[in-house]
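We both want to read C-alpha cells more fluently, so let's practise on a single case. Would you write everything just below, so we can both look at the same thing?
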Amino acid sequence: MRSSKGAALAPLTGIVAVGLLIAGLILSSKSPDTREGGQKILDFYVDNDSEQTASAILLTYGSLFLALFAGALRSGLRRGQNDVEGPATLAFGGGLVMAVGPLILAGATLALTQNSDTLDPSAAEAINALNDGIWITPFLVGQSVLLLASGVAILRGGALPSWLGWVAVVLGVVSATPASLLAFDVTLLWIAVVAIMLSRRASAPAGDQAPTAAPAAPS
C-alpha cells in the first residue's frame, strides 16, 4: 500500500516544479535590463534583496522537483506495453538538463543579492547579463530532449494517451528551433497534465491500470 501511494505521489512533483518555477521566474523577470547600467542594477538588488532572494530559492527548489519529476516520468513511461527503456531514460536525462537552467539563474541572482554592497558596477552588469539569458540554453535543450524522448516512449509504449505523445513530439521539434520560447509555457502545461495522468494511473486499482493502446512510432 505504501509503495502504491508513493508511486501515485511521485509524479505530482511535476506540479510542484511547475508552480515553483513559474513563481520564481515571475519574480526574476522584474530584474533590470543590462542596458540600464551597472549602478542601477546594484541599486535594484539592494532595494529588492528579499524578493530576489525568494526568487532564487523558488527556482532552486523548482529545479529539485523537476529532477524528481524526471525520475517519476521515466518510471511511468516504462509501464507501457512495449519496451521503451531507451527513450524513457533519455527523457530522464533531458529533465536533468532542464533542471540545470533555473539553477544557473538562481546562482546568478544570489551572487547579485548577496554581494550588491561590494560588487563593482561593471561586475554587476556582467553578472546581470548572464542572468538574463545564459540559463535558458540548457533549459531549452533539455526541454527538447525530454519532449522528443517522451513522445517516442508514449507512442511506442502506450503508457499515456497517444495525443500526449504527439503533442510532446511537436513541442520537442519547436523547442529545437529559433521559435523555442514559444513552446516554453506549453511545455510547463504538458508537464502538469502528464504529472496528473501518471499519478491517477499509479493510484488506480490493478485491473484499471492497463496501458493505453498506441501504434508503434515510426522507426
Observations:
- Residues 2-207 form one domain.
- Confidence is low (pLDDT under 50) at residues 213-219.
